[in-house]
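Mods, move this if it's the wrong board.
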Amino acid sequence: MQRWFFLEDKRAPKYRKPKPMSGNQLESGAQVASQQWLFTVAVPTIEPKEKVFITGSIPELGEWDPSKIVILDHKENTDLWSKTVTIPNTCDVLYRYGKCIVGNDADANSVIIRQWEIHIQPRVIKETVLHPFVDTYGESEGKQNVSAGWLTTQTLLQFKFMNNPLKLKGRLAEKILNIKVTPVKLSFETTVLEETSLSTDGTDLDLPTGVLVDVSTLDNDPSVCVLKTQEQFGRQFKPSDVLIINITAPDVKALAYLVDFYAYSSRAGSEDPPCHVGYTYILPNMFKPSEGSLQLPVTCNVKHRPLG
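Not the wrong board. Structure tokens:
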């Protein structure tokens, strides 16, 4: 009769009690569940003061909440914007890019969403993808698809010039003018109704914090039909045009609106600026609820007499 210990197979591995994991081993194991990901996007065109942001499906990207967007950093002398974010390796990460303007205040209410990507399917990083890549803003599967942003804490005030509203006297009656609307902050210390326009030299006034002015001419020409930031001398207005000027502001009732009119001299060169010919003011107490029309006098900038 053989003893039981002779039946033991010496080649079979013996059971060893596992040792408790050290702190370093636990930390390295936890890193498998997430990784540092460098989001990079090429943005060929961007307006002054605009920044690029990212939002997405995970808490680190704000979970699609506009108050929790992640602002990207611009790489100097390039069109690249990037940011390193910790993302999970256990699920797909959905995300979109957009453009915004950040005010002087540190809170989320000072962020104005200007534009964002609206492809039906958002961008995705599969959990199996290991290496970052460079995106192109607005482009997905060879298609460009972006849209204007949305209002969060701001108010949109729209001025519409249509049906040939300018009735001016003398030679100006036949002139094609540029129209510019500038928001001016109201205060008890200063009065808005001055003897002359605030922009007689054509210099851009500093807009109040969080205030934006966008201009569009309703036309078949895409270059003027799309909303763009208002230029130094406004937008040309022809009698048959429909000119849209949008003012985005935290409080439109705290602003007055200076309307300037410019005309080019018949002897002006291609590089010469237009002449400032007149102006008028719009005060917040002139507005009607929701929608209405205004008839305002246009004052000569030089002789301070009515132009029409």
